[in-house]
Design brief:
Number of domains: 3
Helix content: 40-55%
CATH class of the largest domain: Alpha Beta
Structural class: alpha/beta
Shape: elongated
Strand content: 15-25%
CATH superfamily of the largest domain: Aldolase class I
Number of strands: 14
Radius of gyration: 23 Å
Largest sheet: 10 strands, mixed
CATH topology of the largest domain: TIM Barrel
Distance between the termini: 41 Å
Bound molecules: iron/sulfur cluster
Number of helices: 13
Order of helices and strands: EHHHEEEEEEHEHEHEHEHHEHEHEHH
CATH architecture of the largest domain: Alpha-Beta Barrel
Length: 387
């Protein structure tokens, strides 16, 4: 098994090169070829010595993700579904705007947190992505878009770790990927333009502050513990007081002087004027500089939840703004391709169910063939076939 070079940040790649008996600066050349130029084969790396390219050919590879589908929305949003093996798939979404290009990246196949309003949460947890699988989403999107647009300039200016999964529950793979996003020898993104979104894994918020402080967004969704316990089950482990204290500590290291609070607006659940006033009081008491981002919910049948009406959202935003809290309402993007927030995973779930149905059918067909030779088991095949 050879090493996937997408797994390494620059320091990791330098250690790998030293292991091959090469000087550390070779790692910088290699890193630039991979991430700045989008090279996927060592033959392209013409300024590397032939002897090094030959060594790399037997010890390393660059593993792109296999694209299962690409969907383009009328508003320019693009959603890719990537195969990550063993029936798992993850999604990345590109959102173009006039002044920026944002890529929403996944960190896990599925998610263990199980938020009630989240399609990924309903899917359950399958596995952590590797660093290489996280950065491969950016590698693919950036270089594919550059080719498509005929651009030599950077297309993606912002990354949000808001795709499938809780990034801080995959910390050891997340950090090398973040470092590659930030490195001037790779994507060169500003720390302010790389955002990790968490449901509130308190110890890992502190660890992120120490190891790789980038912009932080917290999925809040409720103004009190009782409601948050129900909507974001992780709150039972790390209640609001602990979470807000961790946000305070993070601000000392953060590249921005505020924390973003994401708040998914759920009809009749967390969207009343009382909830808004409670939020204002919570933020005041915590003395925390925050910016609220109100997110229109994208309903899916298993959630049993509905989207708040536009007037309810506007009234809610006004109460927060009157309480001196900067508040924005997120525009929904890519609605027509199910790429909006909280919709990622619908395709994965369908695909999994489809593959399960196909596997069941295969088992039934094999059994039928076997059982045709044995009249004693003929009824079993029929009963299992209809199960
Ligand atoms: S909202 Fe985030 S943390 Fe919650 S279940 Fe969905 S992916 Fe996981």
């Amino acid at each position: 098994m050879t090493a996937n070079l997408l797994d390494f940040d620059l320091e990791g790649l330098a250690v790998f090169c030293e292991g091959l008996g090469e000087k550390r600066f070779r790692a910088t050349q290699l890193y630039r070829w991979i991430h700045q130029k989008g090279a996927s084969s060592f033959g392209e790396m013409t300024d590397l010595a032939k002897s090094l390219r030959e060594k790399l050919a037997t010890t390393a590879h660059i593993a792109p993700l296999k694209v299962l589908t690409e969907q383009k929305s009328a508003d320019g949003t693009i959603k890719w579904l990537f195969d990550v093996g063993h029936g798992d798939a993850v999604e990345a979404v590109y959102i173009p705007e006039t002044d920026r290009g944002t890529l929403c990246v996944s960190s896990q196949a599925g998610c263990a947190v199980g938020c009630r309003f989240c399609s990924t949460g309903h899917q359950g947890f399958s596995r952590n992505l590797s660093s290489g699988e996280i950065i491969a989403q950016l590698w693919f999107a950036e270089h594919t878009l550059r080719r498509t647009l005929g651009s030599t300039e950077r297309v993606i200016s912002n990354v949000v770790m808001m795709g499938m999964g809780e990034p801080l529950q995959n910390f050891s793979a997340l950090v090398p990927a973040l470092r590659t996003m930030l490195s001037d020898h790779a994507y060169g993104l500003s720390r302010r333009r790389v955002t990790v979104s968490t449901s509130g894994v308190v110890p890992m918020i502190d660890k992120l502050a120490q190891e790789c402080p980038v912009a932080l967004a917290v999925s809040l969704h409720a103004p009190n513990d009782a409601l948050r316990n129900d909507l974001v089950p992780l709150n039972k482990k790390y209640p609001l007081k602990e979470l807000l204290e961790a946000c305070h500590r993070y601000l000392e290291f953060a590249p921005r002087d505020f924390i973003t609070f994401e708040y998914c607006m759920l009809d009749g659940v967390n969207d009343t004027p009382d909830h808004a006033h409670e939020l204002v009081a919570l933020v005041r008491q915590a003395r925390l500089p925050v910016k609220f981002n109100l997110i229109p919910f994208n309903p899916f049948p298993a959630s049993g939840l509905l989207r708040s009406g536009a007037k309810v959202v506007a009234d809610f935003a006004k109460i927060l703004q009157d309480g001196a809290i900067v508040t924005t309402v997120r525009k929904t993007r890519g609605d027509d391709i199910d790429a909006a927030c909280g919709q990622l995973a619908g395709d994965v779930q369908d695909r999994t169910q489809a593959s399960q149905r196909m596997a069941q059918r295969r088992v039934v067909m094999m059994r039928s063939a076997t059982e045709a030779q044995s009249a004693a088991h003929a009824h079993k095949s029929t009963s299992e076939g209809t199960a």
